[in-house]
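thread: overnight batch results

M.L. [08:02]
morning all. the overnight job finished for the chain we discussed friday. pasting input first so we're all looking at the same thing
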Amino acid sequence: MFTFSRLLGKNRREENNLLFEGEIALHLSSPIERFIREMANTITLHIFNYYGYYAGSFYPRTHYNSGYMTLRQCEYYLDENKRFTLARKFVEGSLSNIIRNLTYYENRGVGLSAHIKRLKDHLILLNKTQSIEELMSVEGRSKEEYYCSLNEILKNDYFRYTKRERRPPKGPLDTLLSFGNSLLYVTILGEIYKTHLDPRIGFLHTSNFRKFSLNLDIAEVFKPVIIDRIIFTLVNKKMVDESSFEKELGGIYLNEKGRRIFVEEFDRKMNQVISLHGRRCSYQRLIRLELYKIEKHLMGEKEYHPFISQW
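M.L. [08:03]
and the structure it wrote out:
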């Protein structure tokens, strides 16, 4: 991923993705637009505004979308039972990985047993849900329980959680979560583009007026093991602090320094190699493998089971 910043003037690469940060004017005579036109055949480009909000993407002319796969996605989306089965798998993966995170810190002396018990109860309740609405309700309560537990993990009261607020983020922890999730969404979007899946058709997140929803579904599985763990590292190793943020437009945002630190850690995490079923695999590759599993599920070849971290 190449990362460009209006002020930093630096870039990074992770496969065929470009990421622009900051307000960039695209005019007919703009060198940036000419650059985009030249790269249009091979590069996926994502644009964020100054505050870290996703603004849009440019995709290569060549793509792997399959009419057959799109029809299968539509079939599963329109069939209430098939859609619900997949949607519940995404929440199951998310909640299981959340519990893994807390168990890791519980084993290292952080008092999280009460939170873990309640989350395990939610996991049991999840298996009794019968509709998307019930599913989202359990997910919402589980996330609130989890976010409250982060006050025991994060060793800096400046990042204390009180309430999740997104647009605009009101607290520094909200800011880190929102910025990190945005990076993950576009990373998954780029990976979907390299498969036969259609990113517009999700199962947990409604496919209505949203541009993309499948990447949001997949992100639920990976947020705890990628974004949340990045935040634990950044805060507990004092890589970010109050000086990494700025207040503007009624919210709190990462400043240039803070964004640079986060993106560097995100790139490092995505390239980190782990052992998966006896094979070495990066987190970037892990996302692609998850998408292949969904393809096989949709084609009726193999039932989908979400990735659950073992470490």
